[in-house]
Amino acid sequence: MTDHVTQTPRRRMLRPRVLVPMASAIVAAVAIGYFLRAPSPVGHWDSAEGEAEFDSAYNAAFSSMPEPADTMDIRTDFGFVRVYRFEGTGDAEPMMLLPGTASSTPVWAGNMPSLLRIADVYALDLLGEPGRSVQSSPITSTEDEAAWLAETIAALPEDSVNLVGLSLGGWTAANLAIRHPQHVRTLTLIDPVQTFDGIPVETILRAIPATVPWMPKAGRDAFNSYTAGGIEVEDVPVADMIESGMHHYAMKKPQPSRITEGQLSDLPMPVLAIIAGRSVMHDPETASATAKRSLGTGAVRVYEDASHAVTGEYPDEVAADIGEFITRR
């Protein structure tokens, strides 16, 4: 596979059907919050009313998703993991999508039409975070994070998948590939955090007003706009769902450790890295250089004009890169 850089002559306005994945910007805010909290035994809702509010927002956001062919709650040693299966029209092996932290399955709504032309798609809600997955035992290490996901995939008919992770979902996917490579046919990492570079100090500082539940909504909006390249962030169902989860769910997991270049170089499966050229979740030049050193130049796609909300800004282009990648393998 040859290295290429995806560029556009000008910043494109988000199309109406892509407004839902625009909440990827909020995923970035929550990803920072992930690093600012103290660990404790098990994630939980702050009240029955808070859970009900989130549940209503989740249903509204999920209405933009295709109808799932199957809905599963898979038992693991750490709790039940909600997994949806969507039937595709392509003949590639199935994909599994991992969202950014606190965003849950509906964050992929704008990407589903193009991804389903490639293959069947599994999508899950990360365990220990707001969503339909239910944590029952403490997650205390990166090994635990890999274990619950490995148990989830092992329960599927395929036993291994083309794994696709966005933001913190990218870190989660890479962490699994390092520790349980038998479950990963191919690995696609979309602007992952803590994988090719650390989070800049400026981004951490800007995130504080967005990640404290009692701070005004204006603080979250300002940070969301910052992560999305300065565009105006509109209220959409997925954004409402994410904000409700941020406000009412206490995540109690350890901070994800930085993945090393050695770990990336030793991955046995094919890997595709998609880097957003205007991302604020890492330094894009540093991240792309790290990815090229550890994975090879042919494994890296740089979307020069994209923010961290790359899946919402370029859904068809991202799907085309993923489709070409997994079908050639």
Structure description:
- The strands form 2 sheets. Strands 1, 3, 4, 5, 6, 7, 8, 9, 11 and 12 form a 10-stranded mixed β-sheet that branches. The chain has a two-stranded antiparallel sheet with strand order 2-10.
- The chain has a single domain (about 5-325), classed as Alpha/Beta hydrolase fold, catalytic domain (Rossmann fold, 3-Layer(aba) Sandwich), CATH 3.40.50.
- It contains 12 helices and 12 strands.
- With about 325 residues, it is an alpha/beta fold.
- Mean pLDDT is about 85; it is low at about 1-25 and about 35-40.
- It is globular.
- α1 (about 25-35) packs across α6 (about 200-210) and α6 (about 200-210) packs antiparallel against α7.
- The chain has helices at about 25-35, 50-60, 110-115, 140-155, 170-180, 200-210, 215-225, 235-250, 260-265, 285-295, 310-315, 315-325; strands at about 5, 45, 70-75, 80-85, 90-100, 120-125, 135, 160-165, 185-190, 250, 270-275, 300-305.
- The longest helix has 15 residues, at about 50-60.
- β3 (about 70-75) and β4 form a beta hairpin.
- GO terms for molecular function: monoacylglycerol lipase activity.
- Pfam families: Abhydrolase_1.
- This is Pimeloyl-ACP methyl ester carboxylesterase.
